[in-house]
Design goal:
Low-confidence stretches: none
Shape: globular
Strand content: 25-35%
Radius of gyration: 16 Å
Number of helices: 4
Largest sheet: 8 strands, mixed
Mean pLDDT: 95
């Protein structure tokens, strides 16, 4: 089941030993992430990363969300993060979120990671719909959704909450082929 691998990536749960690398990746990426990720700030610390990893492990254990690191294929160099969260078991769907560190953006890594986590969501978790929501102005994230094969469905008004305010979200969806449902 885990880790999840592709040609260039290893997607696996975070380990406490990844905390320094995570904090460094966040620091490197503040200018490209802070506008879209409410948790990202210029003073992000290794301790915050450790706290996040503990929450991720708890969520994985309870099967409430699946937050993973995106690493190089050898599992050593942290490239970013990806998750399936906000899972609704009653209607069998979840949300995919992702980010890639600044020095590795625009290399197709996020869309590759989305394809890998989508297969995991459908085959291992049995979900029948995965949504990607991005702020309307987040062109990079919307491009990743499109390159990953997600279909644009609508702009959902006030669908996201960011910095204490509602904002519109561009809604994309992935569904498995009918024969896999």
């Amino acid at each position: 089941m885990l880790p999840l691998d592709s040609a260039r990536l290893c997607i696996r749960p975070f380990r406490q030993a990844d905390a320094d690398a995570f904090a460094q990746a966040v620091f490197e990426s503040v200018s490209s992430l802070m506008a879209w990720m409410p948790w990202c700030h210029a003073d992000y610390t290794t301790d915050e990363a450790r706290e996040w990893f503990t929450l991720c492990a708890d969520n994985l254990q309870s099967e409430t969300s699946y937050e993973f690191g995106i690493f190089t294929s050898d599992g050593k160099t942290l490239l970013g993060g990806i998750s399936i969260n906000q899972i609704n078991r009653e209607h069998n769907f979840g949300n995919i979120g992702y980010w890639i560190r600044a020095s590795r953006q625009r290399q197709g890594l996020a869309s590759e990671a989305v394809r890998v986590i989508t297969a995991y969501g459908f085959k291992e978790l049995g979900l029948t719909r995965l949504e990607i929501l991005a702020q309307v102005d987040n062109v990079a994230s919307r491009r990743v959704a499109e390159k990953s094969g997600a279909s644009f469905e609508c702009v959902a008004r006030n669908r996201l909450w960011f910095n204490g305010r509602p904002c519109d979200g561009a809604m994309y969806a992935l569904i498995p082929p009918p024969e896999e449902i």
